[in-house]
Design goal:
With 155 residues, the protein is of the alpha/beta class. 37% of the residues lie in helices and 13% in strands.
Length: 155
């Protein structure tokens, strides 16, 4: 059985969903990725759009409560919080023996500006998430799996 990784953010609407999708796409031979949130909401349309731009469809995903995941009793090798630094104090910590990591990313729900400006900012967040997941994968995955990264490049 592959080690499981849980990505956690406040609403499970963008950052954790992107991280889950990237890990499952880039390192599926080494890990099974999941995501959850403290206060699950609806998927952020900006996250859906920027992931779609690089060929990853998360539009059918639903948000999940970290408490429901905890009740299910699933064991995780890694629990990675992806809240921004400003929200880190309220970002949930998953119980158990998992190795805990914190990757700080801005929250797409808080982006300001015109729709085009917010989309551009969401692309930056997506690319930061992708870079962090890629670096994580590089520690565990074979190089063949990482070659899949080429299909997720921005056009």
């Amino acid at each position: 059985m592959k080690p499981a990784v849980l990505f956690v953010c406040r609403h499970n609407s963008a950052r954790s969903q992107m991280a889950e999708a990237f890990l499952n796409a880039l390192c599926a031979n080494a890990f099974s990725a999941y995501s959850a949130g403290l206060e699950p909401g609806i998927l952020n349309p900006l996250a859906i759009a920027v992931m779609h731009e690089i060929g990853i469809d998360i539009s059918a995903k639903s948000t999940t409560s970290v408490f429901d995941v905890a009740k299910a009793g699933r064991l995780f090798s890694y629990v990675i919080t992806v809240c921004d630094e400003a929200s880190a104090e309220s970002c949930p910590v998953f119980p158990g023996q998992a190795r805990r990591l914190h990757w700080s990313f801005a929250d797409p729900a808080n982006l300001k500006g015109t729709p085009e400006e917010r989309l551009a900012q969401a692309r930056i967040i997506r690319d930061e998430v992708r870079a962090k997941v890629t670096a994580f994968c590089a520690q565990f995955c074979d190089t063949g799996a990482l070659r899949a990264l080429a299909r997720f490049r921005r056009s």
